[in-house]
Write a structure and sequence with these properties.
Distance between the termini: 62 Å
Structural class: alpha+beta
CATH superfamily of the largest domain: membrane protein fhac: a member of the omp85/tpsb transporter family
CATH topology of the largest domain: Porin
Radius of gyration: 37 Å
Number of helices: 12
Number of domains: 6
Low-confidence stretches: 1-23
Largest sheet: 17 strands, antiparallel
Number of strands: 33
Strand content: 35-45%
């Protein structure tokens, strides 16, 4: 409601002035009249016009609307007054006055007649509040809110009457809600009539509207929809449920609910035909059909088919296509045929691409992950992949897509709306594992340094058996090209287990690496990493140090330098690299140490690994992974020199339920290894699109062998056999600090070995 009062005489005189002064008059002052409880500064803060601005009727009209939207006023009018210039050089001006009529302020809200719901509870739910402006419309909504609160508790006959009065001393509003609670009524009986294919009991079990429950109309409506879905997914296309009958007893204490169902005939799927399609061949369209001929009709399969067809066209840019579905039923035979008539409208092209919601992240950081380009045909597949790539940056909580079509129906604007997370993190924690004992961690990381997606991470681990620090930096777009640059330095000191000796020797690894990773395509990437590390072995237990030189279990205290180049190629179709729900990942890497790269250790080490992820139902994800590796020395090194590069299978990163060393494969490590893992997990806590906490069950199997000739696929207790384990765990999912707490139970232990292990691990198995 707006009332604009512009004084005619002033308007005419202003018009003359404006014409004489090049149609420009300056606002000399802005005032507010009529306000009593609302401060003038609050009103003036809402308007755009300011002293010194040129007069604009359109701007003043917008200001009136802005004042009205404050919600404090019943009426807003405008008065414009001309004033003379101060001197000959100064233009005459105007004074703008906004005349307001305030809504009354609520002095108090009274609730009378309430016994079952407290006054404080009611006041916390309604919109009208003490010391705020009175709004009659809001008061009527409050009546509905109070009645809804009572109905949720079973008081279906509740009634609420609102009354208003004005306090004579303060002129403020007093609101009174008179509540007639009535009797509490629970459902006495739910009756389902007309069922023949399924028992009444089975139908009732699918409903939330049940005996001894509070009756809620919205719940009953949801039940009816659920029953329609149930019957239509069982082949009953023409099922009909009559309007439910809800009756009460004379005392108004019990309710009786009756549903009448006309099931109709059950149908099987017959012929499926298409017409109107020119963009796609019939064979391509038939691949989208989830309905199977001669099978019982399922509504959900029909819905899936329609979505697949629409998705097929959307991938090609045909956003305006439509599908008319015709079903022809043969009641005598119980067959239903479907015809999909496709109306193919023209292509929709991408006009502009916008990025919104980023306040810290630089826009180009997000834009370079978008594979959809302006001017090309719209592609739903490219939009989905772009959203996945944006989420894979790791520092965004959510990304949504908005497709806006302006007047030109053949073009569309695409808006990527992101929600930024917390890119910086200071983490401190403690954990316990069977291998490292009590372990403390302190980590400082930032995965979006200066809003550029650069990553820096410093982690310090400290405990009785392990002390380490690790500093890394990653530039994802080196020199503004799709090439990653990584730098890393580390220093790790550990008490090492060997065979059944829990503290056979100490080992210190320190060094660094530099890595370049060109991305050839959206899915295919290469990596080249040069690394140098110094390995020092000391405090060797005499049981291992004093053995003969030809004994494979002899450990010698020494220091060696390793200089190596690791080359790898990877192919990745996972939807989310931190928490995949579908897709696969494969990687082949080869490390060459020594030779032309120098150092004391000469070997080559190929490793092949892969993983596969699929969502089975709801958010339950099955993940499978496997890796196979081999290592071999070359002159002048021998097997003793590559002692630290051999494979040790067991522990939290391979076969859970066993020690890291000594229970699977040869005690001195194997040249060949294979490990296979399966996990079935589901989220416990999610925020937007990101999983925070996950529960998983797992099964592992694998082994290590001295040479390829010793390889066996048998599973059992001997050291050279493969071994298996099962267990469960909790995952704390973060892009920079994923933590796994696992309990594993080994299925192939030898006598005397611990049957289970607990693991505190940083990193992902997959």
């Amino acid at each position: 409601m707006f009332k604009y009062k512009l004084i005619s005489m002033i308007i005419f005189s202003l018009a003359g002035i404006l014409c004489a002064q090049d149609n420009l008059s300056i606002i000399r002052d802005i005032r507010v009249k009529g306000n009593r409880f609302i401060k003038e500064r609050e009103v003036l803060a809402a308007v755009e016009s300011r002293k010194g601005d040129y007069y604009s009727l359109k701007s003043l009209q917008d200001d009136i609307q802005a004042i009205y939207k404050l919600g404090h006023f019943n009426d807003v009018t405008l008065d414009v007054e001309e004033i003379d210039g101060v001197d000959d050089d100064q233009k005459p001006g105007i004074i703008v006055t906004f005349i307001v009529s305030e809504k009354k302020i609520i002095k108090t809200i009274k609730i009378i007649g309430n016994k079952k719901i407290s006054r404080s509870k009611i006041l916390s739910e309604i919109g009208s509040q003490k010391r705020e402006s009175f709004d009659e419309g809001q008061m009527l909504l409050d009546v509905q809110t109070i009645e809804s609160m009572y109905r949720d508790k079973g008081y279906t006959s509740v009634s609420v009457e609102p009354y208003t009065a004005v306090d004579e001393k303060t002129s403020k509003q007093i609101i009174t809600f008179y509540v007639n609670e009535g009797n509490r009524m629970l459902i006495k009986k739910v009756t389902v009539q007309g069922t023949s294919a399924y028992s009444e009991r089975r139908i009732r079990r699918k409903m939330k509207t049940r005996r001894k429950k509070v009756f809620k109309e919205e719940t009953l409506n949801e039940d009816i929809k659920k029953l329609y879905d149930f019957y239509r997914n069982k082949g009953y296309i023409n099922v009909h449920i009559s309007k439910p009958v809800v009756e009460s007893n004379e005392e108004k204490t019990e309710l009786f609910v009756t549903l009448t169902i006309d099931e109709g005939r059950r149908y099987r799927v017959g012929e499926i035909t298409f017409e109107g399609n020119e963009i796609f061949e019939l064979d391509e369209l038939r691949k989208t059909v989830s309905l199977k001929k001669d099978k019982i009709f399922k509504q959900e399969k029909l819905d899936e088919t329609l979505q697949e067809i629409q998705g097929l066209y959307a991938d090609k840019g045909y956003l305006r296509m439509r599908i008319k579905t015709s079903q022809i039923t043969d009641e005598e035979k119980g067959i239903v045929d479907f015809n999909f008539s496709i109306i193919e409208d023209g292509l929709v092209y991408v006009d502009r691409i916008y990025v919104e919601g980023n306040t810290y992240t630089k826009e180009h950081v997000i834009r370079r992950e978008i594979i959809l380009k302006e001017g090309e045909a719209f592609s739903a597949r490219k939009v989905r992949r772009s959203m996945e790539k944006i989420m894979n940056l790791g520092f965004l909580d959510d990304v949504q897509i908005d497709i806006q079509q302006p007047e030109d129906m053949d073009r569309a604007d695409v808006v990527f709306e992101v929600r930024e997370g917390k890119p910086g993190m200071l983490t401190a924690g403690a954990g316990f594992s069977s291998v490292d004992g009590l372990l403390g961690t302190l980590q400082v990381s930032h995965i979006n340094l200066f809003g550029t997606a650069r990553r820096i991470n410093l982690m310090w681990e400290f405990g009785e058996r392990r002390q380490s620090y690790d500093l890394s930096f990653t530039e994802p777009w080196f020199m503004n090209r799709p090439v990653s640059l990584g730098l890393n330095v580390f220093d790790i000191t550990r008490k090492r287990q060997f065979a059944d000796d829990f503290s056979a020797y100490q080992e210190r690894n320190r060094g660094g690496s530099v890595q370049l990773g060109p991305r050839l395509t959206d899915r295919l990437s290469l990596s080249f990493a040069y690394g140098f590390k110094q390995i020092r072995v000391f405090d060797v237990d005499s049981e291992w140090a004093d053995r003969p030189d030809n004994d494979p279990l002899k450990i010698t205290a020494k220091t060696t330098n390793s200089s190596s180049l690791t080359s790898s190629i990877a192919y990745d179709t996972r939807d989310n690299i931190f928490d995949p729900t579908r897709g696969h990942y494969g990687k082949l890497s080869v490390t060459v140490s020594g030779g032309p790269f120098g150092g004391d250790v000469h070997f080559y080490k190929p490793i092949m690994r892969g993983s596969y992820h699929i969502t089975t139902f709801w958010k339950f994800v099955l993940s499978l992974s496997g890796r196979v590796g081999y290592v071999e020395s070359f002159a002048p090194s021998n097997d003793e020199d590559i002692f630290f590069e051999k494979y040790y299978v067991g522990g939290g990163e391979s076969i859970r339920g066993y020690d890291y060393r000594g229970e699977i494969g040869p005690p001195e490590g194997g040249k060949l290894m294979s490990v296979f893992n399966a996990e079935y997990g589901f989220p416990l806590v999610q925020e937007y699109k990101r999983t925070i906490l996950q529960f998983a069950i797992f099964a592992d199997v694998g082994g290590a062998w001295r040479t390829a000739d010793d390889l066996t696929l048998k599973i059992g207790t001997p050291l050279d056999y493969m071994k298996s384990g099962v267990g469960f765990g909790i995952r704390f999912k973060t892009p920079v600090f994923p933590i796994r707490l696992d309990w594993g139970y080994g299925l192939n232990h030898r006598p005397g070995e611990d049957l289970s292990q607990f693991y505190f691990t940083i990193g992902n198995v997959f």
